[in-house]
Write a structure and sequence with these properties.
The structure is a homodimer of 375-residue chains. With 375 residues, chain A is an alpha/beta fold. Chain A folds into two domains: 173 residues, Rossmann fold (3-Layer(aba) Sandwich), CATH 3.40.50; 197 residues, Dehydroquinate synthase-like, alpha domain, CATH 1.20.1090. Helix content of chain A is 45%, strand content 19%. The first copy, chain A, has a seven-stranded mixed β-sheet with strand order 1-2-9-6-5-3-4, sandwiched between helices. In chain A, a hairpin with a 6-residue loop joins strand 1 and strand 2. Chain A is globular, with a radius of gyration of 20 Å. The model of chain A has no long low-confidence stretch (mean pLDDT 93). The interface between A and B is large, with 39 and 39 residues.
Chain lengths: 375, 375
């Protein structure tokens, strides 16, 4: 079977991302990373476990190492301290030690939490990521952002901590609900929008193939998104500068997720809508032309992503956006587009954000149920 | 006023340890680290706050930055997730951001928790340590070990995360209870025992001056202990090898702390007793001669440290020691002395640990109240 490998160049923390069909069963991909391991602890969730765990276990069995399995409840709502502590409890009870290899089998939530558990357990143990959603394959798998949510803000507690390897199996993406796959396309589109106009055009041409999960198109999309992100991360591992551009759509997006309650919209849906808003703001601030904004909005809609802002009330948006990790001394910072393929971070005034939100139908403090499919 | 500075050489994570009398009031020591800060969050506890916080606040005021103050309950029993989360809550509510400088004002518990909070808050913010106990000045301030306890083991959750600077004010040590100061001498003795026989002899000669907190002797003790530890940490930041030698006395010591309940014995007392046991084990395994063991035991007793093992029951010791972070695949690893000034890490059998414990009066499963002053 064809296999593509993207290297993330981070010196002593460099690691490979293997991309292709049916990779999770391949013992040879795990073997080089398990040689020094005293045992293996696989962390997954109740949804993913019945789909993939048996095949991963079979591949890991070749190593002859003791396997600990930890199954978490499924969903963003569980990306919190209680679940993280459940991982620690089970690791300690099973006498996992500093040479235990953690394996994150699941989507972004499992990856972020397992990665953060690996960063903190006994002050750091190694881990391998097996992202099972498109979103996790193109986003969470590159760059070592791990963490949990706090009720006062998303991903507020965490670490930069790189995996030993990522195994992105594109075959499984076909069994994902379409909604999940579309949410994943959001981060693919984002990567293109901030850094690669040619890739953006390719996505426009392939959007139906991608929605239908055509395998060749999907492997190519994952590879190019990972390559772009890996290049940015290699230049700025701890987000002192250009890495912040990967947050395009996330300042609005995080406010939507926190405002609606984690798990109401998928992360990719919130980011999709956040990109539409950030592009609108980019036009208002004179950075982007209207034709480019409309083109992005069309692609987001073709990917079945919501582009209308939920009416949380402008004040609630502002309040949440001021808690964003990019904020500095209370000043909101936002990623804006200069053109398709180029972005920059800029401080934005509360007044400008309000005008943008109001123009997008957010004016009152009302809050009701929001189905992302009608936005 | 005289000031001594020990540099911890860790490349991009290098930092200075300033040692001397009345340093906490010196705005010039804080200033270079506050230039890029958006605000300052000082974390302290209810015991330390009334003693030192006003002077630190006055020195920080020179920076003109907004100051957030977070006061924790005092004691090892609070070195847990709940207290850590209280720090996160208050940082988020006060809108601390990625450019907020945390300041840890207190002993080892405040330092370990504030450092871990700094490591995790928004995936990492800078921090300055102001250790107010001798133990924290010579141990917690060097090498970036941060973390919290888990009820299944001490310091099980944490990170290696270096401060921007350490300000070790030796003047305040005079107001410490003698018990605290003696507990701190335990780590000074440990450093000498594993790495520097000349320093060991110096401590023997100065033990009364140190107990009485003679300022010249104390500055010298802190400086030499920090220098030795800094040298070891610079060679092995993440404890893959020789840094583990700094755990001399800690495998038994952690078992004592966890077995008695955190806070019953001071950390330094448990480590003092742990060193006596580890030295005894070193003799039994043929690494150390009896005269050296007796000399170490005499120095520990001169420092008013307990040298008799609390009778937790040998099985409880073994169980706790198998959870130690140095354990690998269930095998206990212990630091033993070859001579005063030289140590090595070695796997030890359960049988050897049991013989050692029994020879030191631990044979039953009994557990009662233990006053470290009579041990």
């Amino acid at each position: 079977m064809a296999i593509t490998t993207v290297q993330v160049h981070l010196g002593p923390r460099a690691y490979p991302i293997h991309i292709g069909a049916d990779l999770i069963s391949r013992a040879d991909l795990y073997a080089p990373h398990l040689q020094g391991a005293s045992s293996i602890a696989m962390v997954t969730n109740t949804t993913v476990e019945p789909l993939y765990a048996q095949r991963v276990r079979a591949a890991l069995a070749a190593s002859g190492k003791r396997l600990i399995q930890i199954v978490l409840p499924d969903g963003e709502a569980y990306k919190n301290w209680e679940t993280l502590n459940a991982i620690f409890e089970q690791l300690l009870r099973a006498r996992a030690d500093r040479a235990t290899m953690l394996i994150a089998l699941g989507g972004g939530v499992v990856g972020d939490m397992t990665g953060f558990a690996a960063a903190c357990y006994m002050r750091g143990v190694p881990f391998i990521q097996i992202p099972t959603t498109l979103l996790a394959q193109v986003d969470a798998s590159v760059g070592g952002k791990t963490g949990i949510n706090h009720r006062l803000g998303k991903n507020m507690i965490g670490a930069f901590y790189q995996p030993s390897a990522v195994i992105a199996d594109t075959r499984g993406l076909r069994t994902l609900p379409e909604r999940e796959r579309c949410a994943g396309l959001s981060e693919v589109i984002k990567t293109a929008a901030i850094a690669d106009c040619v890739f953006f055009e390719w996505i426009e041409a392939q959007i139906e193939a991608l929605r239908a999960c055509d395998e060749t198109a999907m492997i190519e999309a994952v590879r190019r998104a990972c390559e772009i992100k890996a290049r940015i991360v290699a230049a700025d591992e701890r987000e002192r500068g250009m890495r912040a551009l990967l947050n395009f759509g996330h300042t609005f997006g995080h406010a939507i997720e926190a405002g609606l309650g984690y798990g109401q919209w998928l992360h990719g849906e919130a980011v999709g809508c956040g990109m539409a808003l950030a592009a609108d703001l980019s036009v208002r601030l004179g950075h982007l032309d209207e034709a480019a904004r409309a083109r992005l909005a069309r692609l987001l809609q073709a990917a079945r992503l919501p582009v209308r802002a939920p009416a949380l009330g402008a004040d609630r948006y502002i309040d949440l956006m001021r808690s964003d990790k990019k904020a500095n001394a209370g000043q909101i910072h936002c990623i804006v587009l200069k053109r398709l393929g180029e972005a920059l971070m800029t401080p934005v005034s509360v007044a400008d954000v309000k005008v943008c939100l109001e123009a997008n139908g957010v004016s009152t403090s009302e809050q009701r149920e929001y189905d992302p499919r009608i936005y």
